[in-house]
Amino acid sequence: MARGEGGRLVYADLLRVAATLAVVILHLSGGWISEVPVASGAWRVFNVYNGLTRWCVPVFVMLSGMFLLDPKKSLSYRSLFFRQILRIVAALVVWSVVYGLFARFLSGTPLTLSALIQVLRDLVWGRLHYHLWFLPMIVGLYLATPFLRAFVRGASRSDFHFFFLLVFVFAMLLPTLLRIRPSATLSTWTDKLQLELVLGYTGYYVLGYYLKTYTLGRIPELLLYLLGLLGGAATVWGTEWLSLRSGTSDFTLYSYFSPTVCAMSAAVFVLFRYLLGMSDERSRRQQMAGLSAITFGIYLCHDLFIMLLRHFGISTLSFAPAAAVPALSLLVFLCAAVLAWLLSKIPVVGRFIT
Q1: For position 314, what pLDDT does the model report?
Q2: Which neighbouring-strand residues pair with 3?
Q3: What's the CA gap between 95 and 132, in Å, rounded?
């Protein structure tokens, strides 16, 4: 695997940048899909872009797991709380205030002390700007990290395989099937089992470590690529089929826990690890590492520019959606990258908000 300077995994830097761009595409395509008729030309375009970028969030979780769960790297409780969790909590507070006040500014509401108090009250009650949901989720995974590190330290490869089987069946396959075709009996028994350990994003978190640590054979690798392609196609076509059946947009297969998105996510991760290595040229490695270092900041601030687009009446429906989605996504990504880079240069504070 390609390594950057200082032991950096270059494919991880590249994957982090790609996932961040995918988030921007997802938000721009998904932001207007519910405003057009199901199966219209624009709806189908948005469905393709949105469906094929659903891997971005699972990959972010996998990237965290591949580093924080590695038992070869020391991770004290002090480091976990003050270097990892504190940074996320600080970013959550700051950006919740920024988005709350920015929304009021765009709407023409005066930015008074009472407005700030209301924003803080919303934060306390968990009413977050839509994309900031990721931050408390990742804090939850960080809190469980010491116990998960103990698991991966002692687990055999077959233990991992059994764990992933439980995750796939109880966190992905059965919940998706029950949303498509509800069954009171099956729901009752899955609830009674209470397999919380394999629910949520824990599976992706552990999967990131597994795919970094263990080498796949050529046949499993190719099979994973095939499953990823089928997962992408099933997400797009299945979403259209479900939406036509219900007469309204049905995004069941968009769930980050749908089997189709899981297949895409694992395939994308493996693709970047085995096939999309970077050049060994020093300058290219440094450029990728520099951009990767501000991807968290890009994620945090990119929706400011989407809000500005909406405010000025610019959307992915302003011109041909097939061209509008990538064009506006690139514009938003670049603007967010510049802002994130500038914010990262603020002494002390910069590292906590980007």
Answers
A1: 95
A2: 9
A3: 8
